[in-house]
Amino acid sequence: MFDFLAKEKTIAGAGFNRWLVPPAALAIHLCIGMAYGFSVFWLPLSKAIGIKDPMVCAKEMGFFAELFATTCDWKISLLGWIYTLFFVFLGSSAAVFGGWLEHAGPRKAGVVSALCWCGGLVISALGIYTHQIWLMWLGSGVIGGIGLGLGYISPVSTLIKWFPDRRGMATGMAIMGFGGGAMIGAPLADMLMKWYATPVSVGVWETFLTLAAIYFVFMLGGAFAYRVPPSGWKPAGWNTAKSQNSNVMITNRHVHLSVASKTRTFWLLWAVLMLNVSAGIGIIGMASPLLQEVFGGRLIGVGLSFNELSATQKGQIAAIAAGFTGLLSLFNIGGRFFWASLSDYIGRKSTYLVFFALGFALYASIPSAAHAGLLGVFVLAFCLILSMYGGGFATIPAYLADMFGTQMVGAIHGRLLTAWATAGVLGPVLVNYIREYQIANGVPKAQAYDVTMYILSGMLVLGFICNLMVRPVAEKDFMTEAELAEERRLAHDRAVADRVGSAATSNDVSSPVVVGLAWAAVGIPLAIGVGITLQKAAIFFK
Q1: Which has fewest Cβ within 10 Å: 103, 133, 303, 526?
Q2: What is the DSSP string of 366-386?
Q3: What are the pLDDT digits (tens) for 44-81?
Q4: pTM of the predicted protein model
């Protein structure tokens, strides 16, 4: 079993079809992408003891007492820490284990990711069953977060090496799955909770165990399907020198992980990703209340502010806001593939310049559109913003490969994801706390987001400047031929000549039927998720 996981056992033969790798990556990303949909559990878990209504803890009960209390329900604010832990440990684990992944290979990393993510769900199920929230933090937040980090970066280096001619498109396809995981997982979880619900259970711990089993099968399937190309492999008919030498922003050499993280280029790209993500991630978490509080009764043709609406009217606009959230999810997912693919033609630096310039204009125009009651402009602006938020994630691995080479791009990408962990704290804090401060000082809810939008616009200006400053890596930072040979030895790379003609080559001949089935296995669930999301979003246009 462990021998089968070794990287040298995953080197593809001459007959392998590279189009089998993206669905393998999608199988893992669609599972771990459920991290975005965990909010579907908050309300049921907030009444896990009371079942119909929350059993409120005594006011005099302290924080640590609540962690171990079994007679009262958890606050949603406590449950929300799982979401924060997800992205803190995603970024930190990707940074810590990125170098190991390059040497161990994507298959081993994918299996460890499956064990951590699904094992974390099982530990969380135990935490729900025994009503110990610290077990949920440990299970899903910490252990699951490590699984997120390993699963997220596991296909990056491999896909870039398989698709040197379409780096952006390849990583866009896989990372699209992380954005789409919640579209499949959230409706499935909702259905399972209703199925398992009883007079004495809200059905969440049973749902966690079921999801763990389903995800484990899919993630192992994806991990075992991974193959890495032999060193020196390139697509038939692709001219390496012509494609790379024509663009000074694309290198055909390689930078070591230990050197890359000390370069000016790395930290500029770190700032580029952090600023782009910070501007979008806070909006994702507040999308529904933002629309409701800004437009209030205007969403249903009533000239009343949010606070003046009746409970029934608030229910109506909440349904419309759910459609808005669904639209943002679709643009987040579609943007990952669209912008990353576009970057193959216009370049990564130009793509990010578009993100920051267009993003600045959109954020700056949102307050005016809101005050003027231009709902269509408001919605379109946020849809475009979220498309660029997703596109930033999908484009950055190709940007790194262009700058630092492909040999250790997975590990370098892992270190760069600490920018995501930083943005995961900074973005929501900016949006949430500035809103609360504004409201506490008498600003109407419809105007409470104006200052935030202008601050986010300013952050995008900083991102624009950082991206303009990105330059090719200095000559001294690249590995020598001897250093590259040693790194390839440690990474168990094997040259094309060593692989072709080996006994294992015949086992890698890929039938078109197998390729079609692999894409159907991930494409059908994704299509179902998109269909459900479109159905929810349709209410927005009624």
Answers
A1: 303
A2: HHHHHHTT-HHHHHHHHHHHH
A3: 898 899 888 888 888 878 777 877 888 888 887 788 88
A4: 0.87
